[in-house]
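A.,

Following up on our hallway conversation. Structure tokens first:
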């Protein structure tokens, strides 16, 4: 594990245990849907892709991944906003009205295998609330995004 060592260290938080996806299934999925996940995200899936103790909406990867990609894009379209192309939604709330994502091949990534994570709030765009923009950077890397959540849930300093 190059990126998700803290996630590996805390497999149980708040009474929930992480459950991963085997690499063979991740590779089959990438091939079937013509995507190549960054290494940091693949490590996350290996440790917590089926059940994640950080966010329930990040769980059940194979069950909901494609559905999540479709309905968040439909939500953006319904609200008449765009965050660009070639992104992957990793967690969402309210049927895609707010979601966290990363871009494949993000030009702002210092390490393409550990991309920045952003949030989008399409349902709030009309409200013009500065804390809920169409795109907001949450973390400089996927690793930082996960570690921030672990630190919050585990009360780490």
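Then the amino acids I'd put at each of the 157 positions:
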């Amino acid at each position: 594990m190059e990126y998700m060592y803290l996630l590996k260290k805390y497999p149980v938080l708040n009474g929930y245990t992480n459950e991963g996806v085997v690499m063979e299934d991740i590779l089959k999925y990438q091939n079937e849907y013509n995507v190549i996940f960054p290494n940091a995200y693949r490590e996350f899936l290996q440790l917590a892709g089926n059940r994640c103790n950080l966010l329930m909406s990040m769980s059940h990867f194979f069950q909901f991944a494609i559905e999540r990609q479709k309905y968040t894009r439909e939500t953006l379209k319904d609200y008449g906003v765009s965050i660009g192309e070639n992104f992957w939604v990793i967690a969402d709330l309210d049927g895609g009205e707010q979601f966290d994502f990363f871009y494949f091949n993000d030009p702002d990534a210092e390490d393409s295998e550990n991309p920045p994570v952003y949030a989008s709030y399409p349902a709030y765009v009309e409200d013009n609330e500065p804390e809920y923009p169409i795109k907001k950077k949450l973390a400089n890397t996927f690793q930082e995004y996960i570690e921030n959540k672990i630190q919050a849930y585990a009360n780490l300093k």
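Residues 5-154 form a domain with the SMI1/KNR4-like fold (CATH 3.40.1580.10). Curious whether your intuition agrees with the design.

B.
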